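#lab-general

N.A. 3:47 PM
ok so I finally got the sequence cleaned up, no stray characters, all 152 residues accounted for. can someone with queue access submit it? mine expired

B.Y. 3:52 PM
send it over

N.A. 3:53 PM
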Amino acid sequence: MKIHNLYPAKGSKHRKKIVGRGVGSAHGGHGSTRGGKGQTARSGDANVMPGFAGGQMSLSRRVPKRGFSNANNKVIYSIVNVETLEKKFDINSKITPELLVSSGIVRKKTLPVKILGDGALTKKFDVTANAFSKSAVTKIQAAGGTATVQKR
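B.Y. 4:20 PM
back already:
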């Protein structure tokens, strides 16, 4: 075998597509593989925004808006159950949102913390959080602790 006898494997080399060089090129003459005429045949700003109806008022603007959405005002809390406090902390601990974040119970330190009353509580805690459920407050106070609401 000599170097002048080497050649690529059959089917491994492809001819580059030549576009826009007349009718005889099979990719030219009219359209040059871009389909029909008009906006979508042009390069650049062929993409129109979703819902655009060719200058007609879009459907989302034609349909009347009704009702109420509280999505912008909804508060999302990091939730901690009383049962978790019972497992993770010792008696007479002062529990704050910062302590919950540093101990890894709460992951996002930007969210406010809410204590819920799921589970049993026998230890006395002084708990400070942004919100409490009624059952959590009664369980904390029944165990001899205090529940203090902290503003965000």
